[in-house]
């Protein structure tokens, strides 16, 4: 079943001297449970494409249907709510809230969703356990390694029970061992939870784990297998 | 959790937060401390004026205050005293003859105001008898006694038992002389008052002026100054007929000395003005600090927007951070101010050698601080309002952030 349907997507930046077509007519369908890597050289448009899919940026042209809903029709307030309930984000620099502990970082997104305290604490504990961070619940990000922080970041993304998780270069700041661990964990979650993961990457190790690789260049899909 | 994040964010840069907290603290200390000093000084001046000079309420013949003419007297003063003394709020009443005169000795002369009083009545109304530092206050068994102020004694070279000659116009307009023996010397905090006011027995002055059974003034003192207005209304009602017939005029100390009343109002105004100026200066420091804090956390705020935190919640978080910063400083500042005010309220701030200069303008050389609960409360509220207003600019900066730009910067 297709959870993301993208039709003829364009994004042109006009605030530069020469208009830049960052995304130039991408059409794509992503099924539930996919483990997809969006790859391409720097400046190929993969981050812009991810931002458009995540509702962080608005397309110049084309449609993005998530669960049948065209996010182009949502106003900014609805978009914030849509992101909160339907999309999980994992960032390259983890970007956890530094003053909160691991469990608080995971629970925070559930608080935004209005989940009662007891329930969100319980879910956060389970997610940290699933991501291999049992015993690290009360550590602050600064007290965790890069790999552990990215695991918290994945747990936070999962906490909102999203339809899919967008991860922009999630392994870019990790060493080989941490990258391997993180990919194994995400691959496991993909299999056991049927969670859809979409990565942007140019890391060969990520590509090797991916079950689908979409290559983008000059804002266009050049290969999809 | 937003409040918790806001609180913890404060301590991410401890030094910066502590500097702002210290600035707010010192600002509040300055604002409240200066109010304590000014309010204490004015309060002492007002209390001294009521206790030694004015009393709370006075009755006169209606034209007497316009022109201290000797014949503008109140007839049958005891009827008023009797009514006033029946009121539970009234501490004492005193009838007085008042007469302008020239006081002289063999070496010098000066103009004075002579108060002819009934000593036992006067003791219940003014505290001059407590200010006698040499000799005694007036008693019935002395021979033509007079109590003079220290400043006058110095000026006329008077000592105890010195003879003081007073020259005045009596009720018929004839210039009359009288001799009094100095039995006591007093000193208040007001040199000008001490130099110009002398006290004699009412009968002695009556004989000299030819006025008997009548007085120029009935002074009424109360247990509580706050009740002045209420007692004034009651007396006005009781003596309605005499007032309508223009036999008497009743005035409160505020009406008798409007300058004192306006001094109190001006002090309050300047205290608030001073505090507001301090807080405005602090607001700029808070805005600067918070803007720096927001700029440093641009990416983090962008991420919060990306994952679904509404602009309203981000605004709340920044406002709470600012509020916590100002309130912590404000609370510590208020506590320190309270300690400072209580200390000087108890021990007083002694101006030492400068004090003699202050007594020329009617102020005590030791100032006992006073701050009302209302001023403490207002200071706290003003700090909170300053914090909320200071948070607007940094919050707007944060809300203008685009999550895409933040993420782009991030990656």
Task: Considering the chains and any ligands shown, give keywords for the structure.
heterodimer, A: 225 residues, six-stranded mixed beta sheet, 10 strands, B: 411 residues, alpha+beta, 2 domains, six-stranded mixed β-barrel, two-stranded antiparallel ribbon, 16 helices, 57% helix, 19% strand, elongated
Description:
The complex is a heterodimer of chains A (225) and B (411). Chain A is α/β, with parallel strands linked by helices and 225 residues long. Chain A has a single domain, classed as Rossmann fold (3-Layer(aba) Sandwich), CATH 3.40.50.300. Chain A is 36% helix and 28% strand. Chain A contains 7 helices and 10 strands. Chain A is globular, with a radius of gyration of 17 Å. In chain A, 47% of the residues are buried. Chain B is α+β, with helices and mostly antiparallel strands. Chain B folds into 2 domains: 2-49 and 260-410, no CATH class; 62-247, no CATH class. Chain B has helices at residues 2-10, 14-54, 78-85, 119-125, 150-156, 191-196, 202-209, 228-238, 240-244, 253-256, 258-296, 298-307, 311-347, 355-360, 373-399, 403-410, and strands spanning 57-60, 74-75, 90-104, 109-117, 132-135, 145-149, 163-169, 175-186, 197-201, 214-215, 217-222, 249-252, 349-350, 366-367. The longest helix of chain B has 41 residues, at 14-54.
Could you give the order of strands across the largest sheet of chain A? 6-7-8-3-9-10
* Quaternary status: heterodimer
Class by SSE composition of chain B: alpha+beta
Biggest sheet record of chain A? 6 strands, mixed
State the fourth-level CATH superfamily of chain A: P-loop containing nucleotide triphosphate hydrolases
Shape of chain A: globular
Question: How widely separated are the two ends of chain A?
Answer: 18 Å
**Averaged pLDDT of chain A:** 89
Radius of gyration of chain B: 31 Å
């Amino acid at each position: 079943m297709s959870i993301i349907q993208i039709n003829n997507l364009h994004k042109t930046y006009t605030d530069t001297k020469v208009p830049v077509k960052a995304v130039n007519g991408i059409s794509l369908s992503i099924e539930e449970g996919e483990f997809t890597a969006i790859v391409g050289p720097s400046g190929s448009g993969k981050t812009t494409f991810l931002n458009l899919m995540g509702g962080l940026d608005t397309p110049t042209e084309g449609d993005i249907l998530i669960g049948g809903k065209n996010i182009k029709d949502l106003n900014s307030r609805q978009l914030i709510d849509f992101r909160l309930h339907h999309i999980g984000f994992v960032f390259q620099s983890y970007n956890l809230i530094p003053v909160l502990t691991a469990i608080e970082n995971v629970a925070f997104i559930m608080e935004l969703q209005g989940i009662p305290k007891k329930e969100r604490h319980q879910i956060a504990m389970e997610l940290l356990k699933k991501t291999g961070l049992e015993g690290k619940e009360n550590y602050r990000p600064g007290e965790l390694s890069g790999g552990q922080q990215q695991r918290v970041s994945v747990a936070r993304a999962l906490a909102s029970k999203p339809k899919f998780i967008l991860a922009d270069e999630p392994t870019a700041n990790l060493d080989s061992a941490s990258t391997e661990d993180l990919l194994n964990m995400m691959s496991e979650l993909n299999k056991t939870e049927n969670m859809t993961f979409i990565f942007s990457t140019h890391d060969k190790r990520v590509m090797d784990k991916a079950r689908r690789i979409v290559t983008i260049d000059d804002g266009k899909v050049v290969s999809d297998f | 959790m937003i409040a918790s994040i806001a609180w913890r964010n404060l301590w991410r840069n401890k030094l910066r937060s502590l500097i702002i907290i210290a600035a707010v603290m010192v600002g509040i200390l300055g604002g409240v401390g200066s109010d304590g000093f000014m309010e204490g000084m004015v309060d002492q001046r007002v209390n001294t004026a009521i206790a030694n000079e004015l009393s709370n309420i006075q009755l006169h013949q209606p034209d007497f205050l316009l022109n201290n003419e000797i014949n503008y007297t109140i007839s049958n003063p005891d009827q008023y005293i009797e009514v006033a003394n029946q009121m539970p709020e009234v501490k004492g009443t005193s009838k007085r003859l008042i007469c302008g005169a020239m006081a002289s000795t063999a070496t010098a002369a000066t103009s004075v105001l002579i108060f002819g009083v009934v000593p036992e009545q006067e003791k219940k109304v003014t505290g001059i008898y407590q200010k006698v530092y040499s000799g005694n206050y007036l008693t019935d068994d002395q021979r033509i006694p007079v109590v003079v102020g220290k400043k006058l004694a110095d000026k006329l070279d008077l000592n105890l038992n010195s003879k003081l000659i007073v020259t005045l116009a009596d009720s018929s307009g004839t210039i009359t002389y009288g001799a009094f023996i100095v039995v006591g010397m007093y000193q208040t905090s007001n040199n000008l008052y001490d130099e110009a006011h002398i006290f004699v027995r009412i009968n002695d002055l009556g004989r000299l002026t030819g006025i008997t059974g009548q007085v120029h003034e009935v002074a009424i003192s109360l247990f509580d100054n706050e009740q002045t207005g209420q007692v004034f209304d009651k007396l006005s009602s009781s003596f309605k007929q005499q007032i309508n017939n223009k036999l008497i005029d009743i005035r409160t100390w505020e009406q008798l000395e409007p300058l004192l009343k306006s001094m109190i109002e001006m002090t309050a105004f300047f205290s608030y003005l001073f505090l507001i100026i301090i807080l405005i200066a602090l607001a700029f420091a808070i805005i600067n600090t918070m803007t720096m804090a927001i700029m440093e956390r641009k990416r983090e705020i962008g991420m919060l927007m990306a994952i679904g935190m509404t602009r309203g919640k981000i605004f709340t978080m920044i406002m709470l951070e600012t509020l916590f910063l100002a309130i912590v400083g404000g609370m510590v500042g208020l506590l320190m101010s309270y300690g400072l005010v209580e200390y000087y309220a108890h021990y007083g701030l002694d101006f030492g050698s400068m004090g003699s200069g202050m007594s020329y303008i009617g102020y005590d050389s030791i100032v006992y601080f006073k701050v009302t609960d209302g001023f403490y409360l207002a200071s706290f509220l003003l700090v909170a309002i300053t914090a909320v207003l200071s948070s607007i600019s940094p919050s707007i900066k944060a809300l203008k952030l685009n999550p895409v730009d933040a993420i782009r910067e991030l990656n």
